[in-house]
Amino acid sequence: MGELFSATPILFVAMTFAFALLIGSFLNVVIFRLPVMMEREWREHCEELATTAVTDLPQGRFDLITPRSRCPSCGKDITAWQNIPVLSYLMLGGRCAYCKQAISSRYPIVELATAVLVAAVAWRFGFGWEALMGITLTVALVPITMIDFDHQLIPDSIVLPLLWVGLALSLVHPLPGADVLFISPSDAIVGAIAGYLSLWSVYQLFRLITGKEGMGYGDFKLLAALGAWLGWQQLPMIILMSAVVGAVIGIAMIVFRGRDRQIPIPFGPYLAAAGWISMLFGESIKTAYFDHFF
Known about the structure:
The protein is mainly alpha-helical. The protein has two domains: 1-125, no CATH class; 128-294, no CATH class. 66% of the residues lie in helices and 0% in strands. The chain has helices at 2-7, 9-45, 87-91, 106-125, 129-151, 156-169, 185-210, 217-230, 235-257, 268-293.
């Protein structure tokens, strides 16, 4: 099978695209349930100090496996054929099979976006270990992005394992054929330290000047994880791209949508996007930049 995928890259890309649709379906569950699981855990830890009963959160077992997916409107369980990524949404016309309430288009969008991103990684790296780890990083960045958009938090349960896996991969260096991932241990360690301290320093300076918190610790950890995966050399480009895109989008939301300037804008999605772009095209971007300006 490996020889077939190596000899026919388009087949490998097609297979990863199809499989990533299933992964995207599971990521929808992670994006919705993980913040609820985290809040339940926080409430339980603070139960003795809470003044109100925990009645607004699901009761009983609630994790990424149990209970089964169900319609948020009528509560009916979603069957297997109703849960086929993208296809079921189209077959049902974007509505629940029972109560006919509209289903959020975000579910198929996440599934399709995951498949496209994973397919791009497969195309960039080709069949092999580097593609597998690139897909792993991509799959982790998708729920980080969406959860931060929704709740302005980056779960430690995703970003910390991502950091440690990135450091562990450096122990395999040098891996024959790998030109982006599986960097040297020194590059990974320095990347993790520099990634964390760079944003931590900006945070402390901003708080010292304004008395406000400009970002969360999850952003520090995410950039540390990206530094561990991609090396310290990629950090300036990741920070620059994420800052520019974040500033442009933030200003656009204030100007065109009347967003309150006091409402914080999550920075994690821009870090994740910049890290993913750097993984695929980092060296090409740097080469084009230096060829053009120097």
